Every structure is written in C-alpha cells, then in structure tokens.
C-alpha cells in the first residue's frame, strides 16, 4: 500500500490549493477526486463558468442598451446562446487543464475515484479499479452540492439548480428564481440581460439578506432597471412541473397565496455540505446538526490528524475562504502557526453593478452596540463613473467613532469586486478612515470613490459631494 504524508479528498479550490502547499513544503501528497476533471464546484460548475456567462451577457447588454449613447451603432445585434455556452465550456476546460498541469509540476499523485475511509489512516478509492492508500494526515475537502426545499423535486430540465442553469441549450422566455441570494441574482442577471423575463421570489424582506442592507437596496434598484421583478417576504410552498412549464405557489407577507408560472424555475436557496459515501463512521469523524464536518480552530476534526476545509465546514461558502483554509492546514501539518481572520474575508456578488464587502455590516455594529460613524459616496458623483456610464451605486465606510479604525466597507458599483482588495489591505493593517483619505488615488479611477467615502467618514470632508 502506498504511504503518504497527506491525502487530500476533493480537488476544489480548498483541496487543490492545500495539496500544492503541502507539496511546496516537501510533504508527500496525494489528491483524490471522484470526477474526471479537477477543480471542484468552483472551476467546473461555479465561480468560473458563472463569471464567463456574466461577462458574455454583460457585453451583449451593453451593446444593446449603452453603445448607441456611446456613439456606436450596431445592426442586427442578436444573441448566439449556443456559442456563449460553448465559449464558457472552453474557459472551464482551459482552467481545469491548468490544475492538471499544476499537479504534475508539484509532483502530486492524483487518483480519480470516490474516496472513503477504511479506517482513520487508510483511504479506499473506488473507481475503475479499487486502490487503498495509507495517510499520516487526511484533509477532507469534499465541498458542497446545491440545496433545495423538501417539497421540490429538481428534475434538472425545467426545475433546475445553478449546475443546469450554466448549461441550458435554449434561452428561457421566463425564469422564476427561488432565492434572492448570490446565485439567484448572478444567474438571474445573466438571463435578464439576454432578454429572459426574470422574477425572483425571496423569503426574507430583502435580497442578499446577509450583506449590509444599504447594498440590498442599491442592488435591487439596479436590477429593477434591468427588468427583474422581485417578490420579497414570500414563502414558496409548491413547485410543480407541467410539460414545458413550471408553476409555483407562495404565500405573501399577509398570508395570501400567489401563483407564478414560467418555462424554467431556478432553485437557489443555499448549498449543503457534501459528505455522502465517505464512511465517517469508520474514521470517527463527527458531523454537526447541519451536516457539516465539525472542526476546531485548527480545522481538526474529532480525530486530530484528520482535517476538514472549505464548504464542508462552518463559515462562508467561498472559494477564497476554502483556499485560505487549504493553505492553513498544510502549514499546520508542517508544524507552523498560521492564522485566518475570518472577519477580513471579502464577499462579492458579480452582478452589475457589483456588490463587495469586508468586515462588519451596519446591522452587526448596531447589534454589537459598537459606536461607529458612516461615510458614503455615490458613484453618480464620480467623473470616472460618468465617463463609462456606470453611475449606479454607492460606497459606504463604517469606522469606529472614537479611534476612526475602519470596521467595515460596503460597495455597490462598477469594479467593486476588484476594489474591495484595497479595503481588505487597509483593514488588515488596521488603517483608520483618515489614513486612506490621505493616500493619493489616481484620477480618474473608480477607487477615488473609496477615498471620498473615507473622507466623508472623517468629519464629513468629502470633496465632490
Ligand atoms: P468544491 O469546490 O465543492 O470541491 C469539492 C470536490 O470534492 C469536488 O470536485 C467533488 O467532486 C469532490 N469530492 C466530493 N466527495 C468526494 C469523495 N468522496 N471522493 C473524491 N472526491 C470527492 N465562490 C466564490 O468565492 N466566488 C464566486 O464567484 C463563486 N461563484 C459561484 C457560483 C456558483 C454557481 C456556485 C455553485 C458556487 C460559487 N462559489 C463562488 C462557491 C465556490 O464554488 C465554493 O465555495 C468552492 O468551490 C468551495 O470549494 P471546496 O474546495 O470546499 O469544494
Ligand atoms: P444564498 O445563501 O446566497 O442565498 C439563498 C437565498 O435564498 C437567501 O436569500 C435566502 O433567504 C433565500 N431562501 C431560503 N429559503 C427560501 C425559501 N424557502 N423561499 C425563498 N427564498 C428562500 O445561497 P445561494 O445563492 O444558493 O448560494 C450558495 C452559496 O454559494 C452561497 O453561500 C455563496 O457563498 C456561494 N456562492 C458565492 C458566489 C460569489 O461569491 N460570488 C456566487 C455564487 C455562489
């Protein structure tokens, strides 16, 4: 039986990054993946394909709606949806191929097949042929799968999850989206931009309910302009497939039943940790009441040499959070003392305008009774935003009332996904709002809006509002 210092189960951004870091540290490493392609949810059916379609659909939407004003006339503009999906497939293929290359480069043994515990040190891999390997340390990085509601039968044709929504072979005329969270709004945007009538049914009284409520309002305003309809505070109670359509029933805030119908229904109500078939009973690994692998602050399970990372454990289901945990576990196994500040893991919604945030929301600060001050700056006051016709949105900075330390940054606007990195650096170094306001930001750039928001938080000193 081959022996390894580390066996990583699952090749998503948590697993493959962990394997690379282990190899960099000189640990003999194997990576087990049940599918033929590496990269997990993120590369195959998540981050990368969704962003490919978000970009394509945004190009089309701009060409259809903004080019004329820019002085560009187009004739016979139309969507070639099959080509759009084909390009997305190409992007995924190339990205996944990159991971194969990285595994070879780092001399990581990749074993394809379903990994399961035979004991707490022996992993069985069932595939075309069965293999058993021995591990000093095991990292469970098996990720997550789409969640649903108990009464919904996902038929993968008309009642679909994000996985199918990334691979449709026709453009829906109408799509009902159940859940106004990040998947619903990103994929809802893709289809709304391409001309699909999109209606979002959300249980809470606002969309992206875990983010700062000012961002929910800003994004909803922009998405309404795109033509998306929202039904907030609605509890879905029935979803039925008819031949080529889907009917949905939900109770509104007052308890009145509302009916909806469309040719497709996207269910995006969250994801569930994936632990099927791992044989945890043979290894003594415990799960919590939500099916997540229980870990301590060092990401160790109930067995100290078995670690778990990414979507399969507590915390945000984000690729970069999984990556950080993968690196941390590799370094812990190597005897180092790494640390993750979960408060500084940014959150992004890749709609247009984009929404990005780091640190505390205003709602959290209120709940914690933390004395804070607010500085905001709207993109309509930014010269750069006017030049590119991207004037929707706002940046909001929350700082400690006494010390001026930045506690949270919330952006809804153009390129917010990239701009949030400056706020992460600032908060990592415990910058004050005044620190940022005294740093030169190139003109004209969208980043000036961040500086203006920090000026606004510093004695209301914004220049351009
Ligand atoms: P996964 O990526 O889920 O990988 C787990 C891997 O383990 C899979 O390949 C699976 O096949 C394998 N596996 C499972 N069980 C076994 C077993 N027993 N044996 C062998 N292999 C096994 N996050 C972001 O940060 N930014 C985004 O823009 C973003 N967009 C997203 C868009 C969509 C549509 C979706 C669905 C998700 C998106 N996410 C995004 C979330 C992101 O994809 C996940 O947080 C991330 O992939 C989690 O990484 P992971 O390594 O924990 O697990
Ligand atoms: P989510 O948790 O972001 O949103 C689910 C939404 O569904 C919430 O607004 C919730 O209130 C609503 N909901 C729950 N039950 C409902 C019901 N019965 N009726 C109506 N609405 C209901 O989950 P998601 O959008 O499915 O995404 C899953 C995970 O994938 C997220 O945790 C996210 O971290 C990750 N993801 C991240 C990105 C990104 O980083 N850009 C993109 C896509 C997915």
Protein model, in words:
By secondary structure, this protein is α/β, with parallel strands linked by helices. It has three domains: 2-146 and 272-342, FAD/NAD(P)-binding domain, CATH 3.50.50; 159-269, FAD/NAD(P)-binding domain (3-Layer(bba) Sandwich), CATH 3.50.50; 353-457, 2-Layer Sandwich (Enolase-like, domain 1), CATH 3.30.390. It has 15 helices and 22 strands. It has helices at residues 13-24, 40-45, 47-65, 67-70, 81-105, 162-165, 182-193, 213-225, 280-283, 319-333, 362-367, 383-387, 416-428, 433-437, 447-457, and strands at residues 2-9, 29-33, 109-112, 114-117, 122-126, 131-140, 144-146, 159-160, 174-178, 197-201, 229-231, 235-241, 246-251, 257-262, 264-267, 271-273, 306-308, 347-349, 354-359, 372-378, 394-400, 406-413. Strands 1, 2, 3, 4, 5, 6 and 17 form a seven-stranded mixed sheet that branches. A five-stranded parallel sheet has the order 8-15-9-10-11. Strand 1, helix 1 and strand 2 (29-33) form a beta-alpha-beta unit. Helix 1 (13-24) runs parallel beside helix 10 (319-333), helix 3 (47-65) packs antiparallel against helix 5 (81-105) and helix 3 (47-65) runs parallel beside helix 7 (182-193). The longest helix has 25 residues, at 81-105. The chain starts with a strand and ends in an 8-residue tail after the last helix. The mean pLDDT is 98. The protein binds flavin-adenine dinucleotide (FAD) and nicotinamide-adenine-dinucleotide (NAD). Nicotinamide-adenine-dinucleotide (NAD) binds next to helix 7 and strand 18.
């Amino acid at each position: 039986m081959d022996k390894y210092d580390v066996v990583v189960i699952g090749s998503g951004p948590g697993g493959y990054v962990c394997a690379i870091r282990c190899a960099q540290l000189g640990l003999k490493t194997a990576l087990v993946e049940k599918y033929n392609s590496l990269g997990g949810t993120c590369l195959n059916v998540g981050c990368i394909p969704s962003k490919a379609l978000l970009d394509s659909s945004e190009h089309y939407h701009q060409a259809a709606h903004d080019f004329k004003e820019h002085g560009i006339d187009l004739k016979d503009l139309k969507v070639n949806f099959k080509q759009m999906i084909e390009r997305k497939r190409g992007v995924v293929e190339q990205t996944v191929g990159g991971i194969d290359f990285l595994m070879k480069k780092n001399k990581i043994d990749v074993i394809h097949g379903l990994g399961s515990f035979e004991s707490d040190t022996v992993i069985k891999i069932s595939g075309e042929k069965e293999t058993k390997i021995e591990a000093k340390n095991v990292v469970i990085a098996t990720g997550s799968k789409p969640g649903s509601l108990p009464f919904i039968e996902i038929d993968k044709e008309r009642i679909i999850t994000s996985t199918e929504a990334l691979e449709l072979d026709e453009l829906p005329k109408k799509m009902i989206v159940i859940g106004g969270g990040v998947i619903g709004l990103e994929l809802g945007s893709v289809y709304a931009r391409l001309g699909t009538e999109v209606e979002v049914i959300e249980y809470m009284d606002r969309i992206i309910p875990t983010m700062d409520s000012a961002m929910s309002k800003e994004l909803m305003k922009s998405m309404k302009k795109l033509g998306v309809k929202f039904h907030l505070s609605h509890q879905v109670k029935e979803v039925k497939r008819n031949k080529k359509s889907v009917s949905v029933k939900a109770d509104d805030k007052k308890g009145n039943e509302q009916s909806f119908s469309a040719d497709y229904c996207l269910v995006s109500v969250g994801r569930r940790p994936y632990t099927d078939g791992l044989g945890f009973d043979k290894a003594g690994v415990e799960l919590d009441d939500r099916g997540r692998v229980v870990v301590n602050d060092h990401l160790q399970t109930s067995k100290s040499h078995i670690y778990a990372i990414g979507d399969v454990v507590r915390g945000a289901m984000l690729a970069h959070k999984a990556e950080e945990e993968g690196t941390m576990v590799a370094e812990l196994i190597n005897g180092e003392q790494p640390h993750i500040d979960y408060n500084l893991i940014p959150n992004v919604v890749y709609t247009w305008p984009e929404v990005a945030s780091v640190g505390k929301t205003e709602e959290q600060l209120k709940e914690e009774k933390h004395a804070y001050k607010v500085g905001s700056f709207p993109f309509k006051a930014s010269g750069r935003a006017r030049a590119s016709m991207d004037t929707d949105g706002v940046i909001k900075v929350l700082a400690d009332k006494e010390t001026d330390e930045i506690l949270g940054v919330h952006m809804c606007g153009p390129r917010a996904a990239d701009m949030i990195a400056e706020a992460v650096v600032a908060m990592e170094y415990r910058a004050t709002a005044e620190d940022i306001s005294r740093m030169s930001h190139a003109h004209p750039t969208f980043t000036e809006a961040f500086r203006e928001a920090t000026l606004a938080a510093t004695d209301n000193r914004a220049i351009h509002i």
